[in-house]
Design brief:
CATH topology of the largest domain: Globin-like
Strand content: under 5%
Mean pLDDT: 79
Largest sheet: 3 strands, antiparallel
Strand order of the largest sheet: 1-3-2
Helix content: over 70%
CATH class of the largest domain: Mainly Alpha
Radius of gyration: 23 Å
CATH superfamily of the largest domain: Antibiotic binding domain of TipA-like multidrug resistance regulators
Number of domains: 2
CATH architecture of the largest domain: Orthogonal Bundle
Shape: globular
Number of helices: 13
Structural class: mainly alpha
Number of strands: 3
Low-confidence stretches: 1-10
Length: about 260
């Protein structure tokens, strides 16, 4: 009796090592996903090796798409638990829309970089607007409006526009300097209450205050969010793991000294 290829494919399982190679997710992470109930294997062999079937691979794809979109792990678990094919399909359509928008944004960035290279090689001049085409500062605006309200976001947008292209670039550069300084402080081993780290926090607070002047409570809250929200934490920790936590701890001290 011949086996239906589609049935065989659906029944096929892979072990954790192969799934790791296929997906680029480390075996350690897959074991962690199992431990927290996010991605249990379809079966475990007598020697303890995890095996995964088609349903688990599909679930992993869903997890990885959400992770690429910057969704916190706790929210990922809630989303993928929907045991309804119609809900899953609708959710994946939303993800596809977000990924397509991100693809288009990167296409604009790639075109900008390519044009810049051509301009430099030819010795021609690009305008500031052309140089910064595709760098969108309003990526998280809908979320910001929900979290902080329309008035606060509108004021921030007005202040951002008033900076002009050069001012906007200086503002972006100032934040990058803060991030890199935090990374250097982590590598050297400076404590949150050290003069060096407190100076970094002073610059961060000044950078933030260009759009909105936080109180002690709100400053502590936003630096805590930098740690809790994976998207923000990744932005700081890319230079050195723990940079976001260092900023939060140092901001708590700075707020007690300057904002209480």
């Amino acid at each position: 009796m011949r086996t239906n290829p589609a049935t065989a494919s659906a029944a096929e399982t892979v072990d954790i090592s192969k799934l790791s190679r296929m997906s680029g997710v480390t075996s350690r992470t897959l074991r962690h996903y199992d431990a927290i109930g996010l991605l249990p294997p379809s079966d475990t062999t007598p020697d303890g090796r995890r095996r995964y079937g088609r349903d688990e691979v599909l679930r992993l794809q869903h997890i990885l798409v959400l992770r690429e979109l910057g969704t916190p792990l706790g929210d990922i678990a809630t989303i993928v638990e929907a045991d309804d094919p119609a809900v899953t399909i609708a959710t994946l359509r939303d993800h596809l829309g977000a990924l397509t928008a991100e693809r288009d944004r990167f296409a604009r960035l790639a075109a900008t970089v390519a044009t810049t290279i051509d301009s430099l090689e030819r010795g021609t001049t690009m305008t500031n607007e052309q140089l910064l085409d595709g760098f969108e500062h309003r990526k998280y605006e809908p979320e910001a409006r929900e979290r902080w309200g329309d008035d606060a976001v509108d004021r921030s947008n007005a202040r951002w526009k008033a900076l002009g292209t050069e001012g906007q670039q200086r503002h972006l550069d100032a934040h990058r300097e803060v991030v890199e300084a935090l990374g250097a402080a982590i590598r050297v081993g400076f404590a949150p209450d050290s003069d060096e780290v407190q100076e970094i926090v002073t610059k961060h607070h000044a950078w933030l205050s260009l759009f909105w002047t936080p109180t002690a409570e709100t400053y502590r809250g936003i630096t805590q969010m930098y740690v809790d929200d994976e998207r923000f934490r990744r932005n700081y920790d890319e230079v050195a793991p723990g940079a976001a936590a260092l900023l939060r701890d140092a901001a708590d001290i700075w707020a007690s000294r300057h904002l209480s």
